[in-house]
Structure formats: C-alpha cells, structure tokens
Amino acid sequence: MAEKIYERLKAISYPRPSGSAQEKKTLDYLAEQIREMGFDPEIEEFSYTRRIPEEAYVAAVLDDGSEIAFPVTGITDSMETAPEGETAEFYYLRSYDEVSLTRVRGKIVLIHGRLSMEEYRRIKNAGIAGYIVTSGTIRDTYENSDLETARFRDNLSDLGALPAFTIRMIDAVKLLRLRPEKLRFRLRLKEETVQSRNLSVTVPGTSLPEEILAVGAHYDSVPYSLGSWDNGAGAVEMLSLLEHLKEHPARRTVKVILFGSEETGLHGSEAYVEAHPEVIEKTKAMLNIDVGGSILGKELIFLSASDDTEVWVRQLLKESGYEAVTVKMVMSSDSARFNDVGIPSISIGQDAPQGGGYMHTRYDNMDLIDENVLKREAEFIMYLVHRLADPEVFPIPRFLPDSIRKGVIGYFGEKNSRLAKMPAVPEEKPLPFHF
C-alpha cells in the first residue's frame, strides 16, 4: 500500500489552484482511480466570484518627490484605491499596543504576517488608510520565493475592507531602511467567476444506511505550490480508504468527498453543504484530512466536538498505538463548513518543526514525503472510520460545546455564519441513577 499511495501522490504533485485546468486534471485523475475500484463517483460543479488584483503598486516617496517602487501583490477581495492612486504617511506597526495605535490614523501601515480578526478590528478602528503584510522570510531571494496570494477573509467583511498589499520580507527591510515619510499606493481589482468541482462517493452502510459519516479532503493547492503536503497527501489517502471500504463496508453509510477550492475560502465544502441538506441532516460527524505525509513533524488531531469526544479519541490513540496530539479547536479547513451547520468534526493533520515545513510555498513538494508515513496515516484513517461507523450506537454526540460554537461563528463572522442563525443544541446530560 505504501508504494501505491506514494506513486499516486507523485502523480498529482503539481500546482493545481482553484478553478484552473490543473485542478480539473487532478479531479479527472482521482475520478479515474475511483472508477477502477468499481465505484461511480458523483462530480458536481460549483462557482464563486472573487475580486483579484489587476494592478498593485507601492512606492516609497523620497524627499525630492521621486518614487522607489517595490514588488507587491494586492490582497484578493480587499478594497480598490482611487484610479490615480493615493499618498499617505507611512508607519511601521510593530505591535497592536495602545500607544502604537494612536499614531496610525490616516497612514498606510506595514505589519507582520496575517491578521487575526481582533488585530484587524483594532487597526480599522484606529483609522488606517491601508496596510501591507509580509510574506516569506528574511533569507529568501527573488529567485527562490513567491509573493503569497493572500485574500481578505470573509469574517472581516462586517468591518469593511481597506486597500491591502503583500510584500516580501526582504523588501520590507529595504523599505524600512529608506525611512520614507510617505508611500504612494494604487490597487485595482477585477471580478472573476471561478468554476470548480467536488467529487463524492457513497459507500452504503450494511445495516444503518440512514446514518452518515462524512469523510473529506481537499485536492487543490495554492498557485505556486506542488501541494504534496497540503493536501495531495489527504486526497490520495482518501483513495486508499475507498479501496478498503470496497472490501470492508461499514455498518453506517460513509460519504467520501474530495473538495475543490479549499485554499481560496473553503468554497468546495460550502457548495457541498449548500447543495445537500438531506445529507447534512443525516450526517452524524465529519472526519477531515488536511496536510500529511511528511517525514518530519508530528501528527495532530483537531477536535471541533464535545469534551467526551476528546476523551474517546485519546483512548483510541492508546488502543491503536497511533502517535498524535489532540487539540480542541476549529481547524481552518473544510471541516469548519460542517461545524457551521452544527456537525462535530475530527480533523487529522500534521505540524512541522521550525524550518521543516513549507506550506503554501514552492517548497511544498515531494522532497519530505515518506511512503511509510503516508501508509501509517491511511491505516489510522481506516481504523478511525470503522470506530465511528461500526458501533451499534454512534460514539460521539452531534453537539458543539459553547467554546467551539463561538470559535466557528468567529471564524466565519457573525454575518456569514449559518451557525449564528441556529439555536444552540443543549448537551444531553446523563439520567440520574436509581436503585
């Protein structure tokens, strides 16, 4: 099995961004592999719109009025400037402390990395004119790095967008060394409609077919990444699961789903949840696979579920001898879309040591992939599927505790979250015991 998984992963290790011909090529390959097993996969098209950068310009304005421009990209779905651009004072925002935030009104600020919702709320309320986030590391070169294609997240939409850019870390240092008082910036966006696809396979339950376990993984990558780790590994591990289920179906129905366009905002899982309310109603839990196969790092299990579920999973780790760390939180992956309609999830992923993982870069390739790790992960997925789908009573409650519920609503934003519009489901308490 190890060699087969590895060869399948090699076959799809190329950039396959959302809506591209390469994404469809990958889906076609996965579908053909599934048909050879004897299944008839269902392929569903969906579309979404986004506003992508058409022109992005950031330049330091020098004392003599001349400008030194830096390579930047605009942030998808952010806010355009006036056509002629804008000029604003420049400020390097090292942290979000109260003193710093008194100095940013009307300025364009440079900040590190991605913004959390609370960080964005603070700088937006502080009145900034725009912002620039950094990409990569100080050891990058132009030849060995790519500018990250970031997007303005949906959970920030309630606050309103601003003109936003991404700059390489190495260029951020050059910008700071110039000490410019002002920056000239311009951003033009164009709207495009993206076509993508989901693939699903239904393995009917042998005795409890009306109860469904959803198992999913996304198969797209970011534009410049081969996506072997994130998440080609998860996609091909789904093929191994299907081969296993073909010979060993579970008591409950297992719905295996390969999602498109996860990297651009969980669009595949959003489309699936929207299109299949009857499946969602019968789904007891969702098992999600995202990031795996690396010889370096540790296995993680993210639990968006009850405290009892975490206890149950930890016991399974002891029984199976699988080495993993459990984390109770909402994972930024397709499982979150299922959480947002009240379905608990277990997500399997990997964490790399510092300097040993390169998610969302050109270095996410086959270099660190190990066939034995792929095999070990696939075997645990099979084990976990049967421990969920075979018991006489489903082992975990269809319930989200308050901490997870709040995390899901915060992840999508109050305006966009389906869960925010649904009443909380009370946790079932055990009945009192009487002699």
Overall average residue pLDDT = 96
Structural class: alpha/beta
CATH topology of the largest domain: Aminopeptidase
Task: Give the CA-CA distance, first to last residue.
Answer: 53 Å
Within CATH, the superfamily of the largest domain carries the name: Zn peptidases
Which assembly state applies to the chains in this document? single chain
CATH class of the largest domain: Alpha Beta
Instruction: Return the string of H and E elements.
Output: HHEEEEHEHEEHEEHEHHEEHEHEHH
Main β sheet profile: 14 strands, mixed
| Rough outline | globular
Residue share in helices?
25-40%
Per DSSP, the total helix count is 12
Number of domains: 2
Give the strand content: 25-35%
Structural write-up:
- With 435 residues, the chain is α/β, with parallel strands linked by helices.
- The protein has two domains: 2-49 and 194-421, 3-Layer(aba) Sandwich (Aminopeptidase); 53-190, Glucose Oxidase, domain 1 (3-Layer(bba) Sandwich), CATH 3.50.30.30.
- Helices cover 31% and strands 26% of the residues.
- The protein contains twelve helices and 14 strands.
- Strands 1, 2, 3, 4, 5, 6, 7, 8, 9, 10, 11, 12, 13 and 14 form a 14-stranded mixed β-sheet that branches.
- Strand 4 (86-92), helix 3 (98-101) and strand 5 form a beta-alpha-beta unit.
- Helix 1 packs across helix 6 (228-247), helix 1 packs across helix 11 (371-389) and helix 6 (228-247) crosses helix 11 (371-389).
- The chain starts with a helix and ends in a 23-residue tail after the last helix.
- The mean pLDDT is 96.
